[in-house]
Specification:
The protein has 148 residues and is mainly alpha-helical. Helix content is 51%, strand content 7%. The protein is built from three helices and four strands; from the N terminus they run H-H-E-E-H-E-E. The radius of gyration is 25 Å and the shape is extended. It holds the Pfam family MscL. This is MscL family protein.
């Protein structure tokens, strides 16, 4: 039983995912600090004065519970975009490159799709003979016209 577990854990895919997750967590902390201590003060300074930040007070003045804080939302959006870009360029792109060198295609673009005339689902592969949703027979895919 332990040998099977060891073989499962030591598979290359599991190790790759674990390393990627650890790197993502470390990058998340770094990017969170960047948005909290660099982006947030810049956004708060845009409003000026002694405001709680970029936003509007909906209730009693000075009550943080009724403050609509757009600055924090913009900061979270910037955090998300930076984090996704870092994950893509530091984890996904190198992983695609390594897998391509091994002859494995990952994250490929989806092939051409067609619409089922019976149930109107639009996610059928062009070569499908039956609809995956309603099981209706599909007309054969039209051959691409040849250039003359």
């Amino acid at each position: 039983m332990l040998k099977g577990f060891k073989n499962f854990v030591m598979r290359g895919d599991i190790v790759t995912v674990a390393v990627g997750l650890i790197i993502a967590l470390a990058l998340s902390t770094l990017i969170k600090a960047f948005t909290d201590f660099v982006i947030n003060p810049i956004i708060a300074s845009l409003q000026g004065g002694r405001s709680l930040g970029l936003g509007w007070q909906l209730g009693h003045r000075g009550n943080k519970a009724t403050y609509l804080d757009l600055g924090s939302f913009i900061s979270a959006l910037i955090y998300f975009l930076i984090f996704m870009a870092v994950v893509y360029f530091c984890i996904v792109m190198p992983y695609k490159h390594v897998q391509a060198r091994r002859g494995v295609v990952v994250f490929r673009d989806p092939g051409p799709l067609k619409t089922c005339p019976a149930c109107l689902s639009e996610d059928l592969p062009a070569a499908a003979a039956r609809c995956r949703h309603c099981c209706a027979e599909q007309p054969p895919a039209a051959a691409a016209p040849r250039p003359s």
